Amino acid sequence: MKVVVTGASGFLGSRVADYLLSDQSPITVTELVLVDIQAPPKRNDPRVSSFALELSAPGSAEQLITKNVAVMFHLAAIVSGHAEADFDLGLRVNFDATRSLLDEARRTNPSLIFVFTSTVGVFGGNLPEVINDLTAVTPQNSYGTAKAMSELLINDCSRKGFVDGRIVRLPTVSVRAGAANRAVTSFASGIIREPLNGERSVCPVPPEQKLWLTSPEVVVKNIVYAATLPDDALGPWRAVNLPGFRVSVHEMLQALKVVAGEKVAALVSFEPVELISNMVASFPAKFDNSRALDLGFAVDKNFADVIRAYIRNDLKRPL
Amino acid sequence: MKVVVTGASGFLGSRVADYLLSDQSPITVTELVLVDIQAPPKRNDPRVSSFALELSAPGSAEQLITKNVAVMFHLAAIVSGHAEADFDLGLRVNFDATRSLLDEARRTNPSLIFVFTSTVGVFGGNLPEVINDLTAVTPQNSYGTAKAMSELLINDCSRKGFVDGRIVRLPTVSVRAGAANRAVTSFASGIIREPLNGERSVCPVPPEQKLWLTSPEVVVKNIVYAATLPDDALGPWRAVNLPGFRVSVHEMLQALKVVAGEKVAALVSFEPVELISNMVASFPAKFDNSRALDLGFAVDKNFADVIRAYIRNDLKRPL
């Protein structure tokens, strides 16, 4: 089948593409279109075409959603810290571009399976101790707000039969390879990735801050798995909180110490940054995973194993 | 102070205007601008100017939100049944027009107190038995969806200091005077109003259907009261479920019998309409009123008193 991935130059988008092209993919891909604001790197696979596309520009949705597209993974987004700094850009990309894709699906391809990556950042404010899929969404950041607005529209368009939407709310992903990004949770990868490269890392939140994490491997599998669910599996509300695990920054560094030694872990220092600390503290860090697990989504075992997988798969180093 | 009311030709909008102009108003109004898609009727009060305005047309927001407006009551909306039938129109008026008002407030008047009337129709799907202000919003209708999207944007704009938003979610209002409208809950007034005029009324939902109601008097007071709250009263989530009371259609007709006699109540017959029954059944009918009552909002005593107030105030008949 023909599959489209937006945000395909990004860390997760490029891995979703890798996974779709691999033998492990639960979807048989005959044609894969990869787009991002900067053209995704060329791939040595005849099924792949990749090009630069500004999703919020007029005509972009029409160009992407042709009648023969079976599944679209819509990952393109302005990340949390960037959306908080540029309200208009965040809303344009995180909401308006999504809306234009939904409009086009309704017009030309209403059976399109549309997988949307949302975020646990839709939660905020006065939260219960444990979040589940029916906890109220009261975001305290513009990124979560635009994602939550998109969720509502996707759900209603799915109810109306304009598209077949599936919304997965992503925990913070760690360990991300590559450079730091403007997500306010970027440090959650930086405090592991940089020390493993022998570099210092400054953590902007206090060590006792709890995070809700997933590994890249598991979240990529889960994003693709969402497309394989029967269209009625999610019921009247098509958003699901993907499984994650709860860990404090202190516990993350303990795991780093266990896996890579005391010297490596000692490369992390703490310099709280108020804007980041406050935003991160407003994100919930404890979820009830049961609905997602019942639906067949996967979950990581522990953070030490996540670090080991990063060393093995991304750094290509022996353990 | 200068106050603007949108949707001011409507049943609630015109009553909000009446109340603001009355001695009972908790807001001292020196200038009142009333707009609607059809010009609100002229009033014999030098403070009032009224004109027709299509809110989603370019320039409308700029025209309304000048620097000296202290409070805007944004009631203009495409009602539930109409929005369900015309998805694009519903989204344009119920969401895009709201967004353009927020944009303009941010540009020219960020201290504007912006009171937005939302709906208990934001709730739907798999609901807990009792709804409170932190129950997840998973609407099963396009009206509730656009209102919920607007809520998110208003809350975020308020957090960013672009506007001072207050969101009140309205129960179904009964008894509405005047003609039936295209709200799917229009029958909740029709089954009382028409029999009291000696006319037959056909109820499209079964008698055991439970509703969550407010009287026009109480809801108008509550809408205006929202503007008088301190700007931090609502905390990190600026939407409040206005108080209401739970009653079944059967109980409403029992109250009609008590107040107006058996012959009047017998003018109501039942012919279930599936689309309406399903939408109404998806609305919740039991709320925890405690947050709204703690904030000082008012609540009705019982439905028989609501009918009596309608007879006295709208029909101008002795009881």
Write a brief caption for the model.
With 319 residues, chain A is an alpha/beta fold. Chain A has twelve helices and twelve strands.
Written overview of the protein:
By secondary structure, chain A is α/β, with parallel strands linked by helices. The first copy, chain A, has a domain at 2-172 and 215-241: Rossmann fold (3-Layer(aba) Sandwich). Chain A has twelve helices and twelve strands. In chain A, the strands form three sheets. Chain A has a seven-stranded parallel sheet with strand order 3-2-1-4-5-6-10, sandwiched between helices. In chain A, helix 1 links the parallel strand 1 and strand 2. In chain A, helix 6 runs parallel beside helix 8. The longest helix of chain A is centred in the first third of the chain and has 22 residues, at 87-108. The radius of gyration of chain A is 19 Å and the shape is globular. Chain A starts with a strand and ends in a 6-residue tail after the last helix. The interface between A and B is medium-sized, with 27 and 27 residues.
